[in-house]
Amino acid sequence: MNDTAPLTQAPQEQATLLQAPQGSAHAPQIDIVLDVINWVSLISLILITAAMLYFVFKYRRKTEHDETPHISHNLTLEVIWSVIPMVFLFGLFFFGYKTYAEINEPPANVHGAVDIYVTGRKWNWDFVYPQGGKVNSRSSLRNEKNTGLEKIADLAAFKASGKDKDFTAGDSIRLAGKNDFTLTDKGEWVKAEAAASKKLDDPKSSDLWVYQKTTDPKANYFVVPVNTPVRLHIKSEDVLHSFAIPSMRVKRDAIPGSQFRSTWFTPVKEGHYLYTCNEMCGTDHSYMIGYMKVVSMADYQKFLKDINVVDPLVAGKDCYKNKCSSCHSLEEGKKIIGPSLFNFFGTKHKTNAGEVAGDDAYMIESIKNPTAKIAEGFPPVMPPIAVSDEEMVYLIQYLKSVK
Ligand code: HEC
Ligand SMILES: [Cu+2]
């Protein structure tokens, strides 16, 4: 994987005036529906407007004594103009709905599919890989090696570091607290209006930083392999967000709570593709952006190794031992304070809210909001347990692996 390849060198198809490039296998299907709707709308608009203008002219009142003729209705005409568009619109609906349903309900068993857990918060995204490791829309590596932030005290030190060569006219930096500078087209750093450099400001930091350009894809990419089905499982930690990759023609709301919403696509071309938050979620909503990098399978494996600083099953086991094992055994039928979690997944569980399937959603709900449903025959004593999204992915994998 060539980390340093600038955006412009990526084999990225150009967007047209109306549409982002078709980056996923299902993109053409969606675009056909969209094109049909657009063309039909445009042609209808022209025909209806033309007919209207013609009739306005033809049937205008010609003398003071013109009387409007009495016309009640014409059954044949009315049936024709109702039924033909109806058949057409139903066809369009089914065609669109089929694709919509397909991409929002990823099948569970797709051979070789890649799963990524996407969590939005104000105002960045986490991408957790079940193989272990995480990428954030702010930093490309889990251990924050590559946050794009570096402490630099003043302009002289900044220039001495040679970092200024990476910036082009219009870019801003923040040095030593409130000292903001913008690069002019004459190549000079001038003191900037605070508002102008706001876009490169990290709300969490009052320290001495210089920021890498936010357009640098390596500062905020997540990586997927080409020609492989990718399942995204999306959720929010705080407010409503919406995760969208226009070129892949996918978009799914990120909803706070225990439920991951899924979507899937198969990227068909290597390159960089912009992702965005499509829900107005607060001040820095528009900076919840970054790039998805589509690479070869070999490069993808290499990327996984780069970010894989934990073994998911070991991390999952640690989480279980530290946070659950005092109340839940993993032996069949062995109760401690709560029920055994052996074979939790795939079986049904009796609760005060009826029978519930043992799936990821019920597991996450049990941990975050234990009193939502109480297991039959047990006291409602389980406290809500702080388990981060990343831990959750590992914990669930571990619990599934215990047989
Ligand atoms: C202080 C004890 C305690 C701890 C710690 C605890 N639980 Fe529980 N848990 C319970 C009790 C008691 C119940 C049954 C009552 C209920 O459903 O709330 C329960 C219920 C559950 C259920 C629902 C089981 C079913 O069959 O319906 C799940 C799933 C669960 N816990 C998972 C976990 C996980 C995972 C952890 C660790 C992150 C954990 N619990 C930590 C006490 C605990
Ligand atoms: Cu958002």
Question: Can you put this structure into words, describing what you see?
Answer:
By secondary structure, the protein is of the alpha+beta class. It folds into three domains: 1-55 and 72-141 and 217-309, Immunoglobulin-like (Sandwich); 149-211, no CATH class; 312-401, Cytochrome Bc1 Complex, Chain D, domain 2. The protein is built from seven helices and 17 strands. It has a five-stranded mixed sheet with strand order 3-2-1-10-13. A five-stranded mixed sheet has the order 9-15-14-11-12. A hairpin with a 5-residue loop joins strand 6 and strand 7 (189-191). The chain is extended. It starts with 26 loop residues before the first helix and ends with a helix. The structure holds heme C (HEC) and copper (II) ion. The site of copper (II) ion (CU) has 7 residues, from loops.
Task: Summarize the topology.
Blueprint: H1 27-58, H2 75-104, E1 114-121, E2 124-128, E3 134-136, E4 149-150, H3 155-160, E5 172-175, E6 179-183, E7 189-191, E8 210-211, E9 221-225, E10 230-236, E11 241-245, E12 250-254, E13 261-265, E14 271-277, E15 290-295, H4 297-307, H5 312-323, E16 348-351, E17 354-357, H6 360-368, H7 389-401
The protein binds heme C and copper (II) ion.
